[in-house]
Amino acid sequence: MRQALTMALQSYEGAVMVVSHDRHLLTNSVDQFWLVHHGEVSAFDGDLDDYRQIIKSQSSAVSESTSSTNSRKILRQDKAKRRLELRPLQNKLKRVSQSIDDLTQKLQAIDQTLADVNIYQDETKARELSHALETRTTLANQLANLESDWLETAEAIEALEMGADDLSCD
């Protein structure tokens, strides 16, 4: 789904304003970035890496001013907490990826069955055809749900990793 959206945005010839936290989507589909800051909107000449550096420099300036309250122990604890939060998400991502692979193989097998001319010609195979079509529809719906779940999980992991990167910029 993520790739399909990226391809659709790339091929669209009109203007679209995209607001997203998905760095992959933004990197591959945005021609011009705009910065909204302190109630003002201005063109941003850099890319996402430039923006990230700006945010890091701002956060390090804030952290330097409050370094007396944030000890290294608290930062280590925060990093450890994020790693613990990441583990179940990474495991879920692996499980969902495996399920997507399994469903994709099942769909390919059904598509091969449906590609066979004999299933449409022999009236005794009408039940087999009907069953194959119903199964394909069910599997396609399950696959769409799994892909959506995968994308949400990947975004959650990316958000946690970005938070961990912010902690390591000191």
Topology (elements, then pairings):
Blueprint: H1 2-11, H2 23-29, E1 33-37, E2 40-44, H3 48-65, H4 72-115, H5 118-121, H6 126-167
Antiparallel strand pairs: 1-2
Helix pairs in contact: 4-6
Commentary on this structure:
By secondary structure, the chain is mainly alpha-helical. It has a domain at 71-170: Helix Hairpins, CATH 1.10.287. It is 74% helix and 6% strand. The chain is built from 6 helices and 2 strands. It has helices at 2-11, 23-29, 48-65, 72-115, 118-121, 126-167, and strands spanning 33-37, 40-44. A two-stranded antiparallel ribbon has the order 1-2. The chain starts with a helix and ends with a helix.
Structural class: mainly alpha
The first-level CATH class of the domain at 71-170 is given as Mainly Alpha
Describe the main β-sheet briefly: 2 strands, antiparallel
**What best-fitting shape do the alpha-carbon axes yield?**
elongated
Can you give the mean pLDDT? 81
Question: What is the beta-strand fraction?
Answer: 5-15%
**Count of individual beta strands:** 2
Global Rg:
24 Å
- List the uncertain runs: none
What would you say the CATH architecture of the domain at 71-170 is?
Orthogonal Bundle
Helix content: over 70%
In angstroms, what separates the terminal alpha carbons?
36 Å
Instruction: Spell the H/E element sequence.
Output: HHEEHHHH
As for the CATH topology of the domain at 71-170, it is Helix Hairpins
Main β-sheet, spatial strand arrangement: 1-2
- The DSSP helix count reads 6
Looking at how many chains there are and whether they match, the oligomeric state comes to single chain
